[in-house]
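#lab-general

N.A. 3:47 PM
ok so I finally got the sequence cleaned up, no stray characters, all 850 residues accounted for. can someone with queue access submit it? mine expired

B.Y. 3:52 PM
send it over

N.A. 3:53 PM
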Amino acid sequence: MGSLFRSEEMTLCQLFLQSEAAYACVSELGELGLVQFRDLNPEVNAFQRKFVNEVRRCDEMERKLRYLEKEIRKDEIPMLDTGENPEAPQPREMIDLEATFEKLENELREVNQNAEALKRNYLELTELKHILRKTQVFFDEQEGGLNSTESMTRALISDDAIARQNNAGPVQLGTETEGTRKFMMRFVAGVILRERIPAFERMLWRACRGNVFLRQAEIETPLEDPSTGDQVFKSVFIIFFQGDQLKTRVKKICEGFRATLYPCPEAPADRREMAMGVMTRIEDLNTVLGQTQDHRHRVLVAAAKNIKNWFVKVRKIKAIYHTLNLFNLDVTQKCLIAECWVPVLDTETIQLALRRGTERSGSSVPPILNRMDTFEDPPTYNRTNKFTNAFQHLIDAYGVASYREVNPTPYTIITFPFLFAVMFGDLGHGTLMALFAAWMVLREKPLAAKKSDNEIWNIFFGGRYIILLMGLFSMYTGLIYNDIFSKSLNVFSSHWDVNRQELNWIMTNKSIQLDPKYDYVQTPYPVGLDPIWQLAENKIVFLNAYKMKISIILGVCHMLFGVTLSMWNYSYFKKPMNVYTDFIPQIVFLTFLFLYMVLLMFIKWILYGPINDVLHSPSCAPQILITFINMVLFKPSDAKDIQCSPYMFPGQAGIQMLLVICAFLCIPWMLFAKPIIAMRSMNKQHHLLSNHHGVGENGDIESGMPPASQPAQPPIREEEHDIGEMFIHQGIHTIEYVLGSVSHTASYLRLWALSLAHAQLSEVLWSMVLQRGLQSESWVGGIFLWIIFSFWAVLTVGILVLMEGLSAFLHTLRLHWVEFQSKFYSGQGYHFTPFSFETILDQAAHSVEE
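B.Y. 4:20 PM
back already:
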């Protein structure tokens, strides 16, 4: 938990590995996930590195596994996932894996090609079967007693004769003449996609000028396309024509529309004989196709048992060789040199992992891990668990903390759900949210094992602990507000007691207000608000004042805590000048103005009550906002009445004037103190150099110091900025802080605004929806209430819990990112990204799902 308050201490190390032990050592470090390697070959092309061939082999193996996986998913075969995490295979095992994958791929491709050829043959025979059946129907519909072709010939000649008669006079038709024999018809039969029939028919009519006769019939059952496996609908057609020229033209049109032509005998006996032969061949093909599919299924089932582990092994091998490509070879070509960032506390763990890798490889030379000195900024590494991980992601979304900077996460774990609950305070809605989050937490393992690709669900599940705390805190604030679905809980009974007038007279005169001096039992309500306020007409007026003051109090305390954390940063990084020039004036400015305003609120609550004398009655209580404005403008406060005092305590005017003067003096303090101190320090150094003070024999200052005063290690020198730039930076920083203190304090009023909006929306939903279902007392009213309650429940969950919850979440996030973290958090670091098999496998799994 210590590193959660401040990031882990990191160190840059140099690692020396023997070539034969490098693979095993990197494998152990990948399982450990605590080492971030640096690329020592940034100028070398990826295709020119030492282990590029091994990476290509891994890419090829991964391609074959993806092909197998696609075929397995196509057949809907479940892939066995035992949850095991096999170790990375040794380099010599790559040959066996490659041979296994090559054999499976070739066998599967051969089976697929054979199956596709058989399916294509089966499709052709099926289409031919339908052609023989449909064309027989066409021929049977023609005139009886004639040969089918002759029948179609006479039909077409008759049509032609009618056309000629309309254009050029009568035409004499005989029964069996030489002309009839001359015009004997030919025909072609085939199959075409059903959606192409209309265009196909129009093209035939236009290209052949109406000299063809087309008949078509739909095939009722869909046919499987052997190439894609899709189900398609087709139609059988037969085209009658005369002459070779039309035959050529018809065949070209069929080819253009991708229609398949099949031979169809003219004689009925020949067609019946062909149909019998086709049915026999179809039955044989069904048997062969079944055996082929069984063989394919057996191959895929065997592969499905191991494909998850194969993927893990190949990806680990690939990751190891990618990492080895970041290393350098020494001049002897027998040693690999690497540079890496490691957490200081895990150095021994890393050493043990390197020893295990050396023993696995059989090398006799132990690896060497040396710490290095560097001026580079180390990466930021915060140890988290499943509870703190989501809160850390919220902070990192704004910016990764600088190295060893104060981490806001441990404080956000409490302040984030609390500020959310101030806006979302409702015992009923908070319970719904907490129950949903508790369900996700209790069923954490089975829900995580499903690995859903729904982005919204993954967001909710990843933030389940945040949602749980937000729900629990909302239940607490709902209890304080005494608000549950816009109603109140009367647990301890109301502490208002009417004893001045008759109760009946008061109930009939709703404009009468109760006087707390006489009608209120002088004991505070044990928890939260008195339930009587739910019935009061001035409920909103009272809650307005109450929640607005609470928001300002919480906001000022939150900002003061943020400024205090900046002091922790300055003391850790040993920047005393920042303490005097930044922290002290900032804390003074914020305390003397805004914390004083908060103290006035508490003083007003304590001093002014209904049972006090006239000077300390609520009617004489001064307004805090007017008092604060007059204080800043150095304007004397005016009393409400002659008997009342404009001040809450003696000497308030003088104290306020002193506080404002001190606060305003902090502005030039923040603006000029740091640049002036830096300028004086630089002038002092230049003066010492010009007078040759502290110069040793070789001309350097350090060698001229006495031995006791010389530091053991060379100090880290801060960059010398130009004085003008420092003035500009301080000016921007000062203006931002002064104006931000005002705007940020006002920004916390969103706690009040959203809380009132949520409560009012909940009340409107109750009064305009659910209350209408309670008006009828008959059995019809029960059914109507059930319908109304369902509608109210949907609106409650959809609007008040989801939409209002999302709105309050975003406002809370803004209060932390801007109003709180801006006081101490720079967020200019970068993540510690160690070489970890777990991370690599998770990223690969997510990329496959997408």
